[in-house]
Amino acid sequence: MKHKYIFTALLLLLLTAAGALTVQLGKEDRTENEAELRVVTSFYPMYVAAENIMGDIPGVTLSNLTEPQTGCLHDYQLTPQDMVLLSTADLFIINGGGIESFAEEVAGEYPQLTILTASEGIPFLTEGGISDGLDFGEEDHEHDHGHDHGEVNAHVWMDVSRYEQEVENIAAGLAALDPEHADAYRGNTDAYVQRLDALKEKVKELKGRGAGKKIIIFHDAFAYFAEASGMEISYVIDMDENTSLSANMVSELVELVRADDIDLLFAEAQYGTKIADAVSRETGAKVYVLDSLVTGDMDKDSYIRGMEENLRILEEALKEE
Question: Which one of 6, 269, 303, 310 has the fewest CB atoms closer than 10 angstroms to its CB?
């Protein structure tokens, strides 16, 4: 029995030493490659922006902190692997606006790490300007909707013009940290912005076409589409993988749609259309599925493809009304 305890103690010591060695190896590797600029992004939209700006510039590496299917980081908890990755980084790019709830933790743990907030200086839509309209009472809630970023709607990448500003902010930060490649960053950024400008022209074509149309959105990210087209948001139902509305809640939502004469329901591709479809069957309101652009295949063109499809769907919805 004594030998069993000794073995257990030795095993724990080895595991602790292995963890410490992992972090130390990261630091040593960083020292051996001082000429390399290591960039880490918080989640998918930031990764795609940085990917286009960095291109194939030598001596610069890009990693994403979270898996490309993670989605918004509402309640994301940093893992030991995340901390190891950040320990080797020179630059950490975040969206800001409260989406990365762990940003302060990272800043405290790595005071020498440069953290670039892509949304710096960009005006947010305010949460206070949108009524959720759904006072179901505590007893009806099976899920506490956790999509709370405070007083602002931080999903600024959903507006092409604001996303373009984020791209410019990231480019400026990279150039300041790596002036040797400033011209290359500028060239890549200009090429990407030119493609984003083409999307902005499509957005302009939708300007005002949704005026007077009342809608329900199933993710507050879609408020930026409503602003662009002039649609009026009556209610916001924030969905995630844990959202579950009772039959009573769905019934009340149906009554709200009828009372407000709501025509359009915009659901999110990442979380399906089950609730929206149920409301549609009872009211005749049409369901359209949009992409919040928070997941993907890591391809540098995925934002543009996703936004093009979103704009096509919006145009279809406004045309049919």
Answer: 6
Identify the bridge partners of residue 126 per DSSP, sorted by sequence position.
152
Whether pLDDT at 76 is above 90: no
* Alpha helix stretches (DSSP H) within the chain: 2-32, 44-54, 80-87, 103-109, 160-177, 182-205, 223-229, 247-260, 274-283, 302-320
Q: Which amino acid is at 144?
A: D
Residue closest to 213 by CA, chosen among 255, 275, 261:
261
Tell me the two tokens of residue 178: 């790596």
Radius of gyration of the chain (CA): 23
User: 233 phi and psi, to 5 degrees?
Assistant: -80, 120
Q: Are 218 and 266 in contact (CB under 8 A)?
A: yes
DSSP letter for each residue of 270-311: GGBSHHHHHHHHHH-PEEEEE--S------TTHHHHHHHHHH
Burial of 8 (0-12, 13-18, 19+ CB in 10 A): exposed
pLDDT digits (tens, 9 = 90+) for 147-156: 444 578 999 9
pLDDT score of 73: 75
Full-model pTM:
0.83
Instruction: Quote the tokens at residue 83.
Output: 């901390």
C-beta of residue 269 within 8 angstroms of C-beta of residue 287? no
* Residue 224 to residue 153: CA distance in whole angstroms: 9
pLDDT in tens, 204-258: 999 999 998 999 999 999 999 999 999 999 999 876 655 566 788 889 899 999 9
